[in-house]
Every structure is written in C-alpha cells, then in structure tokens.
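This entry is listed as follows:

___
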Amino acid sequence: MSSNLKVLQVIPELGYGGAETGCFDVAHYLSENNCKSFIVTSGGALVKFINKEKVKLIKLPVKSKNPFIILFNSIALILIIFFYNISIVHARSRAPAWSCLLATKITGRKFVTTFHGTYNFNSKIKKFYNSVMVKSNLVIAGSNFIFSHIKDNYSSYLNFKNKLLVIFRGINVDYFDPTTKTETEEKKLLKEWEIEDNKKIILLPGRLTSWKGQELFLEAINLVNIQLGYEAFYAVILGSDQGRGLYKKKLIRLSEQHRITKQVKFVDHCKDMALAYKVSDIIVSASIEPEAFGRVAVEAQSMEKIIIASNIGGSNETVIDVKTGYLFESGNPKSLSEKILKVLNLDDNTLKIIGIEGRKNIVSKFNVEKMCFSTYSEYKKLIN
C-alpha cells in the first residue's frame, strides 16, 4: 500500500526553523520508504539540500497572504494533485493551508495540517484565519502544549470527523551528538568568537526578538556577576537580528549599562549549531512567551549539555527538571540567575550525569526517526 502513497507537503519557505526541517525530514523519510514525496514551497536555504532524485520540488508563491495569490495557488495545487495523482496534501502554515483546503475539497484528497505554533489572534478575523489549521482530516500538534492550545481556543472549529493528535517534533540525534566534534573544531570556533578556552560559556541561541528573552538574559547575567563578584564566564547571544537593528542596539546599550560588554559576545550566525553547543557549558532558553516545542532545549540535551529553560510552553515537556536540566520562572531574571549560579557550582560528575540523562531523554522521545515514522503511520491510516 505504501508504494501508492503520494504525499505533497506545502510550506511557505524551507528555512532552518522547526516546521521547515520537519517538512524536509518527513519528505526524505517517505521516499526512503517506497512512497512518492513532493514539496511545494517558494524557496529557502534548505532547498539546495533536497535530494532531487528522491523528492520532487515545485516552486509556487505559497509564502504570500494575498487572497488572489492564495486562489492562484489553489488552482495550481489542483493541477498538481491531478497530474501526480497525489493521495495526501499536508499544509504546514496558514496561508498555504487555505489554498490546500480549497484544492483538497475540489479534488477529494485527504488533507493534513501541522499546528506548529500558538498563532497569535487579537480579533475574530485573525482567529478565523488561523482556524484553517484545524479544518483538515488530520490535525497534528507538535506538543501537548499545542494540543491543549487547540482544544482551548479552536474547539468550535473542530468536528467529530477531525482527528487531533500529538506527534512530537524530532531532531537529528546523530547530528546533535557530542562525540562527533573534534578539539580542533572547538578551538577554531572559540577563536572566531574571540573567547579564551579556559573560561566557561553560557549560550543563548535564537533570533534576536524581544519574546526570546535576550533582555532578561542580560539582566540575569548582571545578577550572577554581582553574586560572584567577577566575570567568571562569557555570555554568548547567538542569533541574527533579521532586520531588527534597533532591538540589537537596545541589547548592546543594556550590556553597556551593566558594564558587561567585554563579557557578552553577540554572534550573528553559526553554521554548525552542534559545535556551538559543544563549546558551551550552559545553554539557556529564556523565552518570555511559550515556545510551541522549544528546539534549543532539545538540541542542548542531545549534546549532553545543561539546559536552563523558562517553565512555559514546550520546555515543560522536553526538560525533566533537575534530572535533565533546570526550569526557571518565566520572565524572572532573578530566578534565571539563581539557576545559573546553581549549575556553575555543580561538580563535574553531576554535570556528566545530567548530560547523559538529557541525551537519553531526547533519543527516546524526540528523535527525528520517531517523528517521521509516526507521521508516516498516520498517513497510511488516512488512506486505508
């Protein structure tokens, strides 16, 4: 039956985010399991890595929210569905989901959506726009947090024919494996970051945007310094400002006010995130709004590193407090500083045990193979 399964995934852009890498991974998994795999996207950094012999890539302006473009995409998708005899259409974002909804209604094909985030809504119109993500035959939530969010806010749009379930996002645990990085690579990266290799590093990864908690992080670093009485470590803020130049300037001013400019490093990009985790001693996820999944916390644990994450959203599910990392009170710099101080005072053996438990946690629950297999299994149930 699987050889007859033809799945078309639709995503605005194939970048390096969680939704995008999930789409990429599922597409290749399907082709390796005797299925036909298709991706419709407008482009993106991951496009060049797609194995064109295994996955058929079709470019359409599916990033656009323009109603006329959405209608155009619907017509194009109808033609694609009929031409390739697609079995299932899987939308991973709202704008293309509207095109997919119309196309699957007309063609009679199965429709799947993955609810990747909380999708803010401040009006009935915005909520209706978001509701397309629960109008499919199968609605996949990326975490229990998102599952509850859907139940709490979109139950009026769900009906008994919709199937709603959780498939945890997964990461490539073979890539995020601490044994794959060499000392030479580590020293090279530290040199790029202009960091002495005898000092500890506290890493905050994530794009520069206020809800990711960079301001809170800097406040916490200042509080840690007050307690220790000296600059015992480097704090690395790793992420692009993505055009938010004013916000980056605000963060630099804050570090100047606290007189920690020599201690804080701003790094725009790192092409090897596994290596960035490897050279760091503590990883922080300081989001002040709930993360749908919290990829940083998962990747850090896979690298056997100590994660300190805010106690909201997906991190509550991916981090086992004290056993595989630490949770702090969201939005509270004092709480974060206390956890950082606690970890800085842990002995090497305790750090090693927490790291090992963290990787076990991720390998067993949040690896990409498990995510792909679960998605594939649900696809098969839909057409059987």
Remarks:
- The first helix runs from residue 18 to 32.
- The two ends are 8 Å apart (CA to CA).
- The chain has a mean pLDDT of 94.
- The chain has two domains: 2-170+367-383, 178-365.
